[in-house]
Write a structure and sequence with these properties.
Blueprint lengths: L6 H14 L4 H20 L7 H12 L15 H16 L19 H13 L4 H20 L10 H11 L4 H20 L28 H9 L6 H16 L3 H6 L5 E2 L4 E5 L6 E5 L2 H13 L28 H10 L13 H13 L4 H8 L4 H5 L6 H7 L3 H8 L1
Antiparallel strand pairs: 1-2, 2-3
Length: about 425
């Protein structure tokens, strides 16, 4: 029977593991000091062993922090203390330190999994997954591979139901949609590994499934007059305002995704037919949008008076400081709408989304309120499945009220 470690022994093990993982010496010293504070707190409460309850009590009394650190983001004032408590808890459960979810550039594949990961990447490319979708899929997979590597797993055939179960414990604090996406990615990778003879058994069968109905959250939407007010607040007398106005009106009037706006090129503008022709980054499907009058004049104003004259970039929207380059792949451009929302004095209720994507929600809700058929809205938003669009039915409260039944009328009919 495995002996339970005291807090002091547990902290020592975690410090040793941090050194093995090549954490900087200063970082290791900071965590050692943090663990000593937790140990002193435990002694004050006559506790020898670490527990989740002890960790919560420590955070509440010493940092006035009573959040559920599995479900909520870390407040800045007690971020290090929270991370220290989480490390002790993770090591006690898994025997390893679970790395924070940090997107890694130029991921280095562990040698024992390099061949299968490279083959899987090629499989994704052959299936013509979008660049964005492939990047997200592989990122989820790399977290699992890192977990196996830290558990000293040398071969995929060594994966057992217990290992899968332990890994699922590390992700259960995520949103249920994120958990579903992570498990789906894992299941597809393991199924691929079996079909390509990298594993002797179909390990995808031991990955748990979520028995939940498709029930997405109600989208946060703007009122049409708020969108109009925000657009009117933009100072279009300078190059920055001209560019930002053109970007925001493309999202507000046509519902184009931010990723597609960043990738839009000058050659995508078909002025002869007054259309914008692109291949959507998310779905890899061709889309054609009309250049409406106000959109056309906004683009012309930006191209003639806003876009740097000596810019040689093929992309439509560029940064206005030299060198004049397009927006980066990871730029979400939310700072643009945030800036003008504040300038217009528009208050966003806590919990409501307020990024560029929220303008797509507003467009969908407005079209729905105007009686636009759902398949048409699906096509405008570039959704592959109308189920993705159907969620906006829940925002049309007036329409839903008209569908409500009068119980008295029902009872009268039955009689």
């Amino acid at each position: 029977m495995e002996t339970k470690l005291t807090i002091n022994e547990l902290a020592t093990k975690v410090v040793e593991e941090l050194k093995k993982m090549n954490y900087a010496n200063n970082t290791v010293c900071q965590f050692r000091a943090s663990f000593n504070r937790i140990l002193s707190f435990a002694k004050e409460h006559n506790e020898i062993y670490f527990s989740e309850e002890l960790g919560r009590q420590y955070l509440a009394e010493k940092y006035d922090c009573a959040i559920n650190y599995y479900l909520q983001s870390f407040p800045q004032k007690c971020k290090h203390a929270l991370r220290s408590v989480r490390m002790l808890g993770d090591y006690q459960i898994h025997g390893i330190i679970i790395r924070r979810i940090v997107k890694k550039k130029n991921y280095i594949k562990p040698p024992q999994f390099e061949q299968v990961l490279t083959a899987y990447e090629k499989e994704c490319q052959d299936n013509e997954y979008s660049i964005r979708g492939m990047r997200t899929r592989l990122q989820r997979l790399f977290f699992f591979i890192d977990y196996l590597h830290l558990k000293n797993i040398k071969d995929l055939n060594e994966i057992t139901p217990n290992i899968i179960t332990d890994y699922v414990k590390t992700i259960y604090h995520h949103h249920e949609k994120s958990i579903a996406a992570i498990l789906t990615t894992l299941r597809m990778f393991l199924r691929f590994s079996y079909h390509k003879k990298y594993t002797e058994k179909d390990l995808s069968l031991i990955v748990p499934k979520q028995n939940k109905y498709y029930y997405p959250a109600v989208p946060s939407t703007w009122k049409p007059e708020a969108v109009k007010h925000m657009l009117e607040s933009i100072d279009r007398g300078n190059p920055l305002g001209k560019r930002d106005y053109a970007i925001l009106i493309l999202v507000a009037k046509l519902g184009i995704r931010a990723g597609d706006i960043k990738a839009m090129k000058l050659t995508d503008l078909d002025w002869k037919n007054m259309a914008i022709n692109i291949i959507q980054e998310k779905t890899n499907v061709k889309a054609k949008y009309p250049i409406l009058n106000d959109i056309g004049w906004a683009l012309i104003d930006y191209l003639k008076n806003g876009r740097p004259a000596n810019c040689e970039s093929p992309y439509l929207f560029v940064r206005l400081n030299a060198p004049y380059e397009p927006f980066g792949k990871n730029a979400n451009m939310n700072n643009i709408i945030t800036k003008y929302t504040r300038k217009a004095g528009i208050s966003i209720p806590p919990g409501n989304r307020h990024g560029l994507h929220s303008l797509r929600h507003a467009l969908a809700s407005t079209l729905l309120a105007q009686g636009t058929p759902l398949p048409v809205i699906t096509e405008i938003l570039g959704h592959i499945d109308s189920k993705s669009t159907a969620v906006y039915l829940r925002t049309d409260m007036d329409g839903l009220k008209e569908c409500a039944l009068n119980p008295e009328e029902v009872f009268d009919y039955e009689r």
